[in-house]
């Protein structure tokens, strides 16, 4: 099952119109895992935050969100690069919704209370690849910090 999904997400010759929108959501989930793992500390609180974000984005229950996160962990570990995730997302997710993807990434990055340089660098890369400029990403980050009740870092 995961091999088929990886093939659909990462084949260079895949027709974006033939990819189900669920594949983009799985790519987002895997990208959330990649951000959380970027600083080489993948904590329980980050896993829980990923599940919260996935449940909110997809209207999932706790068990379904945990299952999607576990699947995303396997997919992320097998994925060759971040560019392929973002390409899948960019082809299947409307520009306006990409800001919510960036917000989810910031939310996961701040889940453990640390602003890791590796996580921040990865989010800047992903933002650019998704067509979201640095200014907009910074505004999204500030909104996330406000929502989380964290003073600007």
From TrEMBL:
Ranges where the Co-chaperone DjlA N-terminal domain occurs: 26-142
Pfam family, one: TerB
The name this protein goes by in its record: TerB family tellurite resistance protein
Source organism of the structure: Paracoccus litorisediminis
